[in-house]
Amino acid sequence: MKIVFIDENNLVIADEKKAVAIAGVMGGLNSEIEEDTKTVVFESAVFYGGSVRKTAKKVGLRTESSSRFEKGLSAENALRAANRAVELVALLGVGEVVEGKIDVYPTKQKINQIPFDVPKINSLLGTNLSKQEMIDILEQLEIKVENDIAIAPYFRMDLEFVADIAEEIGRISKVVVGANQSVQSLLISYGSIPLNTGTSLTELIRRPELNYDVLAPLDKDRPNLPEEVTEQVNIHIKYEGYISRQMKQVAQFKKLEKKKLPRDFDYQKIHGLRIEAVQKLNLLQPMSIGQASRISGVSPADISVILVYLEQMYQKKK
User: What is the pLDDT of residues 253-289, one digit of tens each?
Assistant: First the structure.
């Protein structure tokens, strides 16, 4: 158990008497599920990434929850997540779902609409793509183009300032910081290791104890950008590897969703599946490999066995 101290600048989830969680970071001991818990209330919310990042840093808790909120999540996901959670409770037969919900969503998320300027995009990217080629690529990303306006899907809030973010990341990558006394003093003041030789500003931002904002004194030509842009620049640089892995995972998930499974199929026919997986799959009858992979008790090894079986069946039909 860890005791943390917060102040009026840190958001909490609370009942009438006490806090039960640090918003976007971690739940409290008083809200944990115990052996004799009979009733569970599903609470789903979306918190501002900048606030979560500052709170997580203050209390010294870097969690899976805080890392997700820091990157920015759509408020449109809150109700979807709650509905999915109770759906799984029903599907898995681990509880009785009661009707009713309280949905507080006074300010709807705006739909980002971005000017679709083909020459500017080609200039920024150093490409020579036609307008139709760009539209085809954007449609694969679920971005519609209407009357030279690109309309972002609800889950891509970052696209509003995407050009500013890209330009700033490109600019920062070219900024070289020397190993002089003022630089060393600033690094030491933040508990960071001094430089032996010059390095890029990008490499310094990647250090856990540093970020885009605190390195401003070393960046004399920094433009005046909105906070939303500077936060995304910091996130993209710090989590570039993570974001890349997640995008590959998303692409893999989409492929798995397209692989359909037979209806009313008896999974006992597939040799190599674990007993628990057979039981869960026969009970839930997922419609796709993607759905099957999200069932608790179905392991990646089970999914591999199913994929091999499907391929063998396909080859026999040919």
Answer: 777 888 889 888 899 988 888 888 899 999 999 999 8
Residue 134, domain extent = 110-155
What average pLDDT does the segment 142-156 reach? 88
- What are the φ/ψ torsions at residue 199 (nearest 5 degrees)? -150, 170
Of 140, 166, 288, 138, the C-alpha closest to 232 is 166
Of 300, 315, 314, the closest CA to residue 262 belongs to 314
Q: What is the dihedral of CA 52, 58, 63, 64, to 10 degrees?
A: 20
β-sheet bridge partners, residue 115: 149
Cα separation of the two ends of the chain: 59
Predicted confidence (pLDDT) per residue in 150-186, tens digit: 888 888 876 767 667 777 887 888 899 999 999 999 9
Q: Do residues 71 and 36 share a domain? A: yes
Cα(303)–Cα(310) distance, integer angstroms: 11
Return the CA Rg of the chain.
24
Domain boundary among 155, 171, 191: 155
Cα 159 from Cα 166, distance rounded (Å): 10
Distance CA 34, CA 300 (A): 29
**Which of 240 and 34 is assigned the larger pLDDT?**
34
Quick check: 14 and 23 in contact, CB under 8 A?
Answer: no
- Answer yes or no: are the C-beta atoms of 294 and 303 closer than 8 Å: no
Question: Looking at the 3D structure of the chain, how many domains does it have?
Answer: 4
Output the domain CATH number for residue 188: 1.10.10.1800
**84-92: average pLDDT:** 92
